[in-house]
Amino acid sequence: MRIRMEGFVVFDFEKQYSEARKELAKWLVEGKIKRQETVIKGGITKMPEALRALYDGVNTGKMMVEVKAPAAGSRSKL
């Protein structure tokens, strides 16, 4: 039994970052890819709680602390 793993260096493709961002954003909107994130609400005062939760493995995907609620109608950018 064998396994092979191969990767690439993202910096080798720096000229394609803009195109990749657009394509990834499109795929997110279309539901072709999904992101997982855990958002702790309550501002910067919740940071210690979020840090403990991070080390306890409570989060799914990216762990974030919401410092300010997003404005109505605004969209996050990739």
TrEMBL record:
It comes from the Eukaryota. This is Alcohol dehydrogenase. It comes from Extremus antarcticus. GO terms for molecular function: oxidoreductase activity, acting on the CH-CH group of donors, NAD or NADP as acceptor. InterPro entries: MDR_fam.
